[in-house]
Amino acid sequence: MNSTNFRMPARRWSAVAAATVLAAGPVALAGAGPAQATGEHGSASAAVLRTGLDVALLDKSVHVPLTVSLNEVRAPQSAQKTLLTADLEGVDKGRPFSVLRAEVADAKATVEGQRAEASTTLAKARIHVPGLPLLSLIELEKVTSRAVCETGRTPLASATLPGSVTVLGKRVTLTSTGTTEVTVPGVGEVRLDLSRTETTSRTAAATALRLEVAVDPLKLNVAEVNGTVTLAEAKCEAPEAPAEQPAAPAAEQAAPAEPEEPEESEKPDKSEEPRTADVQPQGARAEQAASPSTS
Hints:
The N terminus is likely disordered. By secondary structure, the chain is mostly beta strands.
Protein backbone atom coordinates (compact mmCIF):
# COMPACT_ATOMS: atom_id res chain seq x y z
CA MET A 1 0.00 0.00 0.00
CA ASN A 2 1.52 3.28 -1.10
CA SER A 3 0.96 6.46 0.80
CA THR A 4 2.00 10.09 0.48
CA ASN A 5 2.81 12.15 3.53
CA PHE A 6 2.97 15.94 3.80
CA ARG A 7 5.31 17.94 6.03
CA MET A 8 4.02 21.01 7.83
CA PRO A 9 5.68 24.20 9.14
CA ALA A 10 6.45 24.15 12.87
CA ARG A 11 4.10 27.03 13.69
CA ARG A 12 1.24 26.21 11.35
CA TRP A 13 0.04 22.87 10.05
CA SER A 14 -2.20 22.25 7.12
CA ALA A 15 -3.70 18.78 6.85
CA VAL A 16 -3.92 17.19 3.45
CA ALA A 17 -5.49 13.84 2.62
CA ALA A 18 -2.86 11.35 1.45
CA ALA A 19 -3.97 8.00 0.20
CA THR A 20 -3.47 4.66 -1.44
CA VAL A 21 -5.55 3.83 -4.49
CA LEU A 22 -7.48 0.59 -4.28
CA ALA A 23 -5.97 -1.63 -6.97
CA ALA A 24 -9.24 -3.11 -8.18
CA GLY A 25 -9.50 -1.62 -11.63
CA PRO A 26 -9.34 1.86 -13.18
CA VAL A 27 -10.53 4.72 -11.01
CA ALA A 28 -11.58 8.15 -12.29
CA LEU A 29 -10.38 10.86 -9.94
CA ALA A 30 -11.88 14.31 -9.65
CA GLY A 31 -9.53 17.17 -10.58
CA ALA A 32 -8.06 19.72 -8.22
CA GLY A 33 -10.78 22.21 -9.06
CA PRO A 34 -13.86 20.22 -10.02
CA ALA A 35 -16.73 22.10 -11.58
CA GLN A 36 -19.67 22.72 -9.30
CA ALA A 37 -22.82 22.06 -11.29
CA THR A 38 -25.81 24.21 -10.56
CA GLY A 39 -29.12 25.07 -12.14
CA GLU A 40 -30.33 23.12 -15.14
CA HIS A 41 -27.56 20.48 -15.13
CA GLY A 42 -27.98 19.38 -11.51
CA SER A 43 -25.13 18.31 -9.22
CA ALA A 44 -23.84 15.51 -7.02
CA SER A 45 -21.09 15.35 -4.40
CA ALA A 46 -19.74 12.82 -1.90
CA ALA A 47 -17.01 12.49 0.72
CA VAL A 48 -15.92 9.55 2.83
CA LEU A 49 -14.32 11.68 5.58
CA ARG A 50 -14.39 15.36 6.45
CA THR A 51 -12.86 16.92 9.56
CA GLY A 52 -13.10 20.38 11.02
CA LEU A 53 -10.93 20.22 14.17
CA ASP A 54 -9.05 22.79 16.21
CA VAL A 55 -5.89 21.58 17.96
CA ALA A 56 -4.53 23.66 20.86
CA LEU A 57 -0.95 23.26 22.10
CA LEU A 58 -0.20 22.80 25.80
CA ASP A 59 0.30 26.49 26.46
CA LYS A 60 -2.82 27.23 24.35
CA SER A 61 -0.98 30.08 22.68
CA VAL A 62 -1.27 28.37 19.27
CA HIS A 63 -4.45 26.95 17.78
CA VAL A 64 -3.99 24.82 14.69
CA PRO A 65 -6.84 24.02 12.31
CA LEU A 66 -6.91 20.38 11.28
CA THR A 67 -8.92 20.02 8.09
CA VAL A 68 -8.96 16.78 6.12
CA SER A 69 -11.17 15.67 3.24
CA LEU A 70 -10.82 12.11 1.99
CA ASN A 71 -12.31 10.96 -1.32
CA GLU A 72 -14.23 14.16 -1.97
CA VAL A 73 -15.78 14.09 -5.44
CA ARG A 74 -18.18 16.36 -7.30
CA ALA A 75 -20.03 16.04 -10.60
CA PRO A 76 -21.71 17.02 -13.28
CA GLN A 77 -19.12 14.71 -14.81
CA SER A 78 -18.96 11.27 -13.24
CA ALA A 79 -16.23 10.91 -10.63
CA GLN A 80 -15.08 8.22 -8.22
CA LYS A 81 -12.33 7.86 -5.62
CA THR A 82 -11.29 4.88 -3.54
CA LEU A 83 -8.42 6.21 -1.42
CA LEU A 84 -7.85 4.28 1.79
CA THR A 85 -5.69 6.37 4.14
CA ALA A 86 -5.26 9.94 5.31
CA ASP A 87 -1.89 10.67 6.96
CA LEU A 88 -0.35 13.79 8.51
CA GLU A 89 3.23 14.72 9.24
CA GLY A 90 4.37 17.28 11.80
CA VAL A 91 1.79 16.37 14.42
CA ASP A 92 3.40 13.39 16.15
CA LYS A 93 6.93 14.80 16.67
CA GLY A 94 7.56 14.76 12.93
CA ARG A 95 6.41 11.18 12.42
CA PRO A 96 3.52 10.31 10.10
CA PHE A 97 0.22 10.46 11.95
CA SER A 98 -2.68 8.40 10.65
CA VAL A 99 -6.07 10.14 10.72
CA LEU A 100 -7.89 7.28 8.96
CA ARG A 101 -7.21 3.72 7.90
CA ALA A 102 -9.87 1.68 6.09
CA GLU A 103 -10.26 -1.46 4.02
CA VAL A 104 -12.97 0.16 1.89
CA ALA A 105 -13.38 3.90 1.32
CA ASP A 106 -15.38 4.65 -1.79
CA ALA A 107 -17.09 7.84 -2.96
CA LYS A 108 -18.97 8.24 -6.24
CA ALA A 109 -20.91 11.09 -7.89
CA THR A 110 -22.68 11.03 -11.25
CA VAL A 111 -24.99 13.30 -13.25
CA GLU A 112 -26.54 11.69 -16.32
CA GLY A 113 -29.47 13.11 -18.22
CA GLN A 114 -32.20 14.04 -15.73
CA ARG A 115 -30.66 12.09 -12.81
CA ALA A 116 -28.01 13.03 -10.23
CA GLU A 117 -26.72 10.50 -7.71
CA ALA A 118 -24.04 10.34 -5.00
CA SER A 119 -22.98 7.48 -2.73
CA THR A 120 -20.28 6.59 -0.20
CA THR A 121 -19.09 3.44 1.54
CA LEU A 122 -16.64 3.21 4.45
CA ALA A 123 -15.78 -0.18 5.97
CA LYS A 124 -13.32 -1.60 8.49
CA ALA A 125 -12.25 1.90 9.45
CA ARG A 126 -10.33 3.46 12.33
CA ILE A 127 -10.08 7.22 12.92
CA HIS A 128 -7.55 8.95 15.18
CA VAL A 129 -7.01 12.52 16.33
CA PRO A 130 -3.75 14.15 17.51
CA GLY A 131 -2.83 13.18 21.04
CA LEU A 132 -4.43 9.74 20.78
CA PRO A 133 -2.06 7.71 18.57
CA LEU A 134 -3.01 4.36 20.13
CA LEU A 135 -6.64 4.94 21.09
CA SER A 136 -9.07 5.29 18.18
CA LEU A 137 -11.56 8.10 18.20
CA ILE A 138 -13.96 5.65 16.53
CA GLU A 139 -13.80 2.17 15.00
CA LEU A 140 -16.61 0.89 12.80
CA GLU A 141 -17.52 -2.03 10.57
CA LYS A 142 -19.40 -0.32 7.74
CA VAL A 143 -21.40 2.83 7.02
CA THR A 144 -22.98 3.96 3.76
CA SER A 145 -24.91 6.93 2.45
CA ARG A 146 -26.83 7.56 -0.78
CA ALA A 147 -28.66 10.50 -2.35
CA VAL A 148 -30.68 10.30 -5.58
CA CYS A 149 -32.27 13.29 -7.32
CA GLU A 150 -34.25 12.87 -10.54
CA THR A 151 -36.20 15.49 -12.42
CA GLY A 152 -39.93 15.20 -11.76
CA ARG A 153 -39.53 12.70 -8.90
CA THR A 154 -39.21 12.97 -5.13
CA PRO A 155 -35.50 13.00 -4.07
CA LEU A 156 -34.29 10.11 -1.90
CA ALA A 157 -31.71 10.15 0.90
CA SER A 158 -30.62 7.17 3.00
CA ALA A 159 -27.82 6.07 5.33
CA THR A 160 -26.98 2.76 6.97
CA LEU A 161 -25.14 2.08 10.23
CA PRO A 162 -23.70 -0.97 11.96
CA GLY A 163 -25.30 -2.23 15.13
CA SER A 164 -22.44 -0.88 17.23
CA VAL A 165 -19.18 1.08 17.08
CA THR A 166 -16.22 1.59 19.41
CA VAL A 167 -15.71 5.17 20.60
CA LEU A 168 -12.62 6.05 22.68
CA GLY A 169 -12.28 2.37 23.49
CA LYS A 170 -15.90 1.92 24.61
CA ARG A 171 -18.37 -0.31 22.75
CA VAL A 172 -21.50 1.70 21.93
CA THR A 173 -24.81 0.35 20.61
CA LEU A 174 -26.35 2.51 17.90
CA THR A 175 -29.92 3.19 16.91
CA SER A 176 -31.03 4.10 13.41
CA THR A 177 -31.33 7.81 14.22
CA GLY A 178 -30.78 10.20 17.09
CA THR A 179 -27.83 11.18 19.26
CA THR A 180 -25.45 9.15 21.40
CA GLU A 181 -22.97 10.61 23.88
CA VAL A 182 -19.80 8.88 25.07
CA THR A 183 -17.65 10.16 27.94
CA VAL A 184 -14.28 8.67 28.94
CA PRO A 185 -12.76 10.23 32.11
CA GLY A 186 -9.30 11.65 31.51
CA VAL A 187 -9.69 11.40 27.75
CA GLY A 188 -12.69 13.35 26.53
CA GLU A 189 -16.22 13.33 25.18
CA VAL A 190 -17.73 12.43 21.83
CA ARG A 191 -21.28 13.09 20.70
CA LEU A 192 -22.53 11.05 17.74
CA ASP A 193 -25.35 12.26 15.47
CA LEU A 194 -26.68 9.24 13.61
CA SER A 195 -28.12 8.89 10.11
CA ARG A 196 -28.94 12.47 9.25
CA THR A 197 -31.02 12.82 6.07
CA GLU A 198 -32.74 15.80 4.49
CA THR A 199 -34.74 16.30 1.29
CA THR A 200 -36.45 19.18 -0.52
CA SER A 201 -38.36 19.28 -3.79
CA ARG A 202 -35.10 19.02 -5.79
CA THR A 203 -32.30 18.16 -3.33
CA ALA A 204 -31.26 15.33 -1.03
CA ALA A 205 -28.48 14.94 1.55
CA ALA A 206 -27.42 12.00 3.73
CA THR A 207 -24.72 11.65 6.40
CA ALA A 208 -24.11 8.33 8.10
CA LEU A 209 -22.24 9.70 11.16
CA ARG A 210 -21.30 13.11 12.48
CA LEU A 211 -19.10 13.29 15.57
CA GLU A 212 -18.69 16.30 17.83
CA VAL A 213 -15.32 15.82 19.48
CA ALA A 214 -13.88 17.31 22.70
CA VAL A 215 -10.77 15.47 23.90
CA ASP A 216 -7.97 16.53 26.27
CA PRO A 217 -5.24 13.88 25.98
CA LEU A 218 -2.36 15.98 27.42
CA LYS A 219 0.10 14.18 25.15
CA LEU A 220 2.30 15.04 22.18
CA ASN A 221 2.27 18.74 23.14
CA VAL A 222 -1.48 18.75 22.55
CA ALA A 223 -3.83 20.18 25.16
CA GLU A 224 -7.22 19.98 23.50
CA VAL A 225 -8.85 18.82 20.31
CA ASN A 226 -12.30 20.19 19.49
CA GLY A 227 -14.48 20.12 16.41
CA THR A 228 -16.36 17.78 14.11
CA VAL A 229 -15.74 14.62 12.10
CA THR A 230 -18.20 13.69 9.33
CA LEU A 231 -18.34 10.19 7.85
CA ALA A 232 -20.04 9.02 4.63
CA GLU A 233 -21.65 12.15 3.21
CA ALA A 234 -23.68 12.29 -0.03
CA LYS A 235 -25.60 15.17 -1.64
CA CYS A 236 -27.41 15.83 -4.91
CA GLU A 237 -29.58 18.34 -6.76
CA ALA A 238 -31.91 17.32 -9.58
CA PRO A 239 -31.51 18.93 -13.00
CA GLU A 240 -34.19 21.42 -13.89
CA ALA A 241 -37.01 20.22 -16.10
CA PRO A 242 -36.63 21.17 -19.77
CA ALA A 243 -38.35 24.44 -20.61
CA GLU A 244 -41.68 23.95 -22.37
CA GLN A 245 -41.93 25.27 -25.91
CA PRO A 246 -44.46 28.14 -26.20
CA ALA A 247 -47.72 27.12 -27.91
CA ALA A 248 -48.23 28.36 -31.48
CA PRO A 249 -50.58 31.39 -31.63
CA ALA A 250 -54.14 30.59 -32.71
CA ALA A 251 -54.94 31.37 -36.33
CA GLU A 252 -56.64 34.70 -36.70
CA GLN A 253 -60.21 34.46 -37.95
CA ALA A 254 -60.78 36.18 -41.26
CA ALA A 255 -62.96 39.27 -40.98
CA PRO A 256 -66.21 39.14 -43.02
CA ALA A 257 -65.68 40.65 -46.45
CA GLU A 258 -67.43 43.95 -47.08
CA PRO A 259 -69.60 44.10 -50.23
CA GLU A 260 -67.58 45.47 -53.09
CA GLU A 261 -68.67 48.69 -54.70
CA PRO A 262 -69.42 48.23 -58.43
CA GLU A 263 -66.90 49.83 -60.66
CA GLU A 264 -67.73 53.15 -62.18
CA SER A 265 -68.14 51.64 -65.64
CA GLU A 266 -70.72 49.14 -64.31
CA LYS A 267 -72.98 51.73 -62.71
CA PRO A 268 -76.16 52.46 -64.73
CA ASP A 269 -76.09 55.87 -66.45
CA LYS A 270 -79.26 57.76 -65.60
CA SER A 271 -78.69 60.01 -68.56
CA GLU A 272 -79.37 57.06 -70.90
CA GLU A 273 -82.88 56.36 -69.49
CA PRO A 274 -85.66 56.56 -72.24
CA ARG A 275 -87.37 59.93 -72.47
CA THR A 276 -90.79 60.86 -74.04
CA ALA A 277 -90.35 63.32 -76.92
CA ASP A 278 -92.74 65.10 -79.29
CA VAL A 279 -91.99 64.03 -82.90
CA GLN A 280 -93.45 66.13 -85.62
CA PRO A 281 -94.42 64.28 -88.90
CA GLN A 282 -92.75 65.74 -91.97
CA GLY A 283 -93.23 65.65 -95.79
CA ALA A 284 -96.17 63.84 -97.44
CA ARG A 285 -97.20 62.16 -94.21
CA ALA A 286 -97.55 65.56 -92.63
CA GLU A 287 -99.72 66.86 -95.47
CA GLN A 288 -101.85 63.71 -95.44
CA ALA A 289 -102.36 64.01 -91.77
CA ALA A 290 -103.36 67.66 -92.14
CA SER A 291 -105.95 67.19 -94.99
CA PRO A 292 -109.41 65.77 -94.19
CA SER A 293 -110.06 62.32 -95.51
CA THR A 294 -112.23 62.16 -98.62
CA SER A 295 -114.66 59.50 -99.40
